[in-house]
Amino acid sequence: MAAVHVSGLHTAHSCTVAAQNNFAAEKARGRLSKTPCALSSSSSVSRGDWVWNSKSVKVESRKGLCSPVAAASSVSTASVGDAEHDGASSMEWLSPTSGNPMEEWLRRSEEREGDAWREECGVVAIFGDPEASRLCYLSLHALQHRGQEGAGIVTANENTLHAVTGMGLVSEVFNESKLKKLPGSSAIGHVRYATAGASVLKNVQPFVAGYRFGSLAVAHNGNLVNYSELRAKLEENGSIFNTSSDTEVILHLIAISKKRPFVARLVDACEQLEGAYSLVFLSEEKVVAVRDPHGFRPLVMGRKSNGAYVFASETCALDLIEAEYVREVQPGEMIVIDKNEGYSSSCLMPRVERKACIFEHIYFALPNSVVFGRSVYGSRYAYGQILAETAPVECDVVIAVPDSGVVAALGYADRAGVPFQQGLIRSHYVGRTFIEPSQKIRDFGVKLKLAPVAEVLKGKRVVVIDDSIVRGTTSIKIVRLLKEAGATEVHMRIASPPITGSCYYGVDTPSKEELISYRLNVEDTRKVLGANSLAFLPLERLRGMLGDEAPKFCDACFSGDYAVPPRDLTKLKEETMKPVQVIDEGFEGKIEATPEEALAAEQEALAAKKEASAGQAPAVVA
Ligand code: SF4
C-alpha cells in the first residue's frame, strides 16, 4: 500500500503507529486477540481513555486499542454503544380518527423514530482551577439535558492533553478513577446528542488532534451547513477523516492553515465555516471560546471566586459550580485565555446580524438558565400568558406535558384564572431501552414516560400545554391518554408557533415533509390529534414579545426565514452516515510518520516489551 499522508493533521498516522506498537506489548501479555488500529473495526471497541501529546498517544479501552481522534472508534456501522431512539418506535399504531388520510403517513413517522425535537449539545471550558476536570464534570452534569448520547472531558497538564470519552450519561461515563486520570488546571467538556454524524463512540467529543505545532482539543455545539463541501475539499487534498462529525473539519482547517500565530489559524479556520458553532478549544497553554457571527447557539462566560474562567452553553452550569455569570460570548467573538498572556478578546470575523435560536427559550434550555440575556423561565411563562389571551377556552383545569410545558402552563393558568394541576406525572426512571411486553399495550412508550392522574382529569374540561408539536405522534397519544383517564374535553395549547421547517443550525429535526404543521393546517391537525380544540402561540405575538430584539432571533423553523441558506439536510445526513470503508485485520500498509513520531513509537514499544517481560502492569494508561 502506498504511504498515506494526512495533510497537516497528523492524528491518524501518528496514533496508529503508536497504537500498533502498544498492541505489540499488549499481545505479548495475551490481552488482545485482534489487531488494533485506527482502521480497525469498532465492533471490538467500547469506551476509550487516552492520553495524547504531540509525539505519542496511549490508549486504553475496555476491549481494545484504537486511535485518538477516533479513539475507541472507527466505523459508522458500529453497534457497540449505539444509542437507541426514544419513543415507541415499534408500537402498533391506532389512529383516533381511523380512516383519516394522514394515517399511513403518521404510521410511517412513528415507525421511523420518536416524536421529539432533540436537544443539541452542551460545551464547557474551565481555565485556571486545579480541580478543572471535576468542575467540568459537574458542569456537564448541569448540561445533561442538552445531550445524553455521550460525554467527554479533555484536560491539559504539563504539555499533554488527557482525555476520557464514552457513550451514555455523564454519570455513566465518569467515576472517581476516570476523573483522577484527568489532571491539570484547564479542561474542556462536551455532552452530545448527534445532530451531525452517527451516534457512535468515535463521534463523542471533545476531539483531540496533534499537528505540527502541538495538540489541540475541540468541543462543538451547532451544525456546519457547509460541512459536506469543506470535507470534500479537504479529502481532495489528502485529508483523512476519522469520524463522521462536522466538527472534525475544524481541526483539519486549523492544521492546514498557513496563518501565524495560533489564534490567527483559529480565525482563519472559523472564517471558512458556515452555520452554527459555539466552540471551545484547549491547547497545552490556552482555552479559547468562539461563537459564530450569527450567534445561533448560546455560550456564556463566568468567573469563579478564585479567578478561574468558565465558559458554558447555559448559565445553569455556572450556578452549579458557583461561578458568577459575567456575560455572553458575543456573536463572532473569540476569547482567548493564555497561561502567559492572560485574557484577550477579538472580533475578527465579518459582522452580521445576530440570529439567536428562539427554540432555546421554547424547549432546549433549562428554565433556571439565562440564555441570550433573557430568563428562560420568564419567556415560557409569558408564552403561556399569551396563549390564554389569544386562545381562551372554558375549562376546569390547566395541566402541562412535563417538563418543558410546565412553566408555560403556569403562565396560562395565571392569566386564565384557572387552577394549574399536575394531570400528567413524568417518570424519571425510564431508561433508554425498555422491553415491550409480548402482548402489545397501546401507547406503551408514552405510558412509560407519562402517567395520567385520574383524580385531576375525571369529568373535567382540560387545557393541556405542550412546548411544541413535531410529527404529532406523541400528541395523539397524550390526547387519548387524557380522555381515557376521564377528561370530558381536551384542549391542546402549544407554547410555540407551528413548526413548518427543519433546523440546519444544530438541532436534530426531521425533514419538513415529516412535520405535521408543514402538511396540515391547524384545524386538520386538531382532527388528527383528536383534541376538542388546538391553538399555537402566534408567531407575531412571539416576535412582539421580543420587541426590538425580534430581528436578532432566529425563528426559521416557524417562518422559513433562514439567515444562512440551508443545504439539503437529508442529503447531508445520508452522506455523513455513509459507512466508512474499513481495512480490518489484514492491514499491512505503510503509514507515514514523522521521524520524531517513529522514534517515540519505537521507544514506547521497547518500554512496553520490557515491562511485559518483567510482568508489570500494562503500559496503556490514561
Ligand atoms: S431554525 Fe428553529 S431550532 Fe433552528 S436555530 Fe432557528 S429557531 Fe432554532
Automatic annotation (TrEMBL):
It comes from the Eukaryota. Keywords: Glutamine amidotransferase, Glycosyltransferase, Purine biosynthesis, Transferase. InterPro entries: GATase_2_dom, Ntn_hydrolases_N, PRTase-like, PRTase_dom, PurF, PurF_N. Residues 78-101 are annotated as: Disordered. The keyword Ribonucleoprotein does not apply. The keyword rRNA-binding does not apply. One of its GO terms (biological process) is purine nucleobase biosynthetic process. Pathway: Purine metabolism; IMP biosynthesis via de novo pathway; N(1)-(5-phospho-D-ribosyl)glycinamide from 5-phospho-alpha-D-ribose 1-diphosphate: step 1/2. Residues 121-340 form the Glutamine amidotransferase type-2 domain. SUPFAM superfamilies: N-terminal nucleophile aminohydrolases (Ntn hydrolases) (SSF56235), PRTase-like (SSF53271). One of its GO terms (molecular function) is amidophosphoribosyltransferase activity. Gene3D superfamilies: 3.40.50.2020, Glutamine Phosphoribosylpyrophosphate, subunit 1, domain 1 (3.60.20.10). Its EC number is 2.4.2.14. It is an enzyme of class 2 (transferase). It catalyses: 5-phospho-beta-D-ribosylamine + L-glutamate + diphosphate = 5-phospho-alpha-D-ribose 1-diphosphate + L-glutamine + H2O. It holds the Pfam family GATase_7. In the C-terminal section; belongs to the purine/pyrimidine phosphoribosyltransferase family. This is amidophosphoribosyltransferase. It comes from Ceratodon purpureus (Fire moss).
